[in-house]
Specification:
283 residues, alpha/beta, Purple Acid Phosphatase, chain A, domain 2, six-stranded mixed β-sheet, 30% helix
């Protein structure tokens, strides 16, 4: 009996290790379609790749696991919603050069997360300059227009901290914070089709009030451990956070939350594989 119990424990441990390996290292492609009548006809069928929370993780030589998949998808634009690099990363040049093929081939829109913000001021400024030298559209509390023929859509971004809600959220605080974010995005025109890149998805209720149409987020990693549709824990140390993963539409706004690709504080992912998100816009 003891021998059977011992063999069972070893077998379970081996299965656990395999599951963790798959959940940590095997990339999946997750596809969504977003329909919106405000979308100009010129952008009907626009294909967007969304990458988030890589945390300096390397998938194959020169990150070929990410780069080759993006090249195969061949998107119209790429959106990076923060924490692509880890705050402890020392060789920033290496990670910028790994993605250079993507940056040079596809218009890439980048908004910072908490890890870029916590690089330290000098490293942070240097990193942003390196991205910009590769042609990356780094958006810090602002907006850019993506133009096609005589029409356009707007790509807005709030940097991390500017999209972090107050610790105590009363109705008055919420209204105050929405006003604060609206001021940061003072050029936002709700008559346009508006994309918002905001690292933290837990403020979706407030993003809706800005009048944006589509939000790209990450940060939560889908939950460090995910069972089915349930996220157990967010980086804010909140249990069962809402909007932790996938596509959610409320009122006239859709949020796409990526599970990300890397690991942060806790070096484990379970039932939660790293992913590249592909979103197709339809009118």
């Amino acid at each position: 009996m003891l021998e059977i119990i011992g063999i069972s424990i070893i077998a379970l441990f081996i299965v656990f290790i395999i599951l963790v390996y798959i959940s940590t290292n095997i990339i999946k492609i997750k596809r969504y379609t977003v329909n919106n009548s405000k979308l100009p006809k010129e952008f009907d069928g626009l294909k967007i790749v969304h990458i988030s929370d890589v945390h300096s993780k390397i998938f194959g030589e020169n990150n070929s696991g990410i780069v080759n998949r993006v090249l195969k998808i061949n998107p119209d634009i790429v959106i990076m919603s923060g924490d692509i690099i880890d705050k402890r990363e020392k060789d920033m040049e290496k990670f910028v050069s790994m993605y250079k093929t993507i940056y040079e081939k596809y218009p890439t829109y980048y908004s910072i997360g908490n890890h870029e913000r916590n690089l330290g001021w000098k490293k942070y400024k240097k990193y942003l300059k390196m991205l910009q030298s590769c042609g990356v559209h780094v958006i810090i509390n602002g907006s850019e227009k993506l133009i096609k023929n005589d029409n356009h859509i707007a790509i807005n971004a709030l940097k991390f901290r500017e999209n972090m809600q107050p610790k105590v959220l009363t109705r008055e605080k919420e209204e105050e914070f929405v006003s604060y974010m609206r001021n940061k995005l003072r050029n936002l025109n709700t008559n346009d089709f508006n994309i918002l890149i905001a690292h933290d998805p837990e403020n979706f209720k407030m993003y809706k009030k800005l009048g944006v149409d589509l939000v790209f987020s990450g940060h939560v990693h889908g939950g460090l451990i995910r069972i089915g549709k349930i996220c157990l824990l967010s980086p804010r140390r909140t249990f069962f956070p809402k909007y932790s993963y996938g596509k959610t539409t409320e009122e006239n706004t859709t949020i796409i939350t990526s599970s990300g690709m890397g690991k942060a504080t806790l070096p484990i992912r379970l039932f939660n594989r790293p992913e590249i998100v592909v979103v197709t816009l339809k009118k």
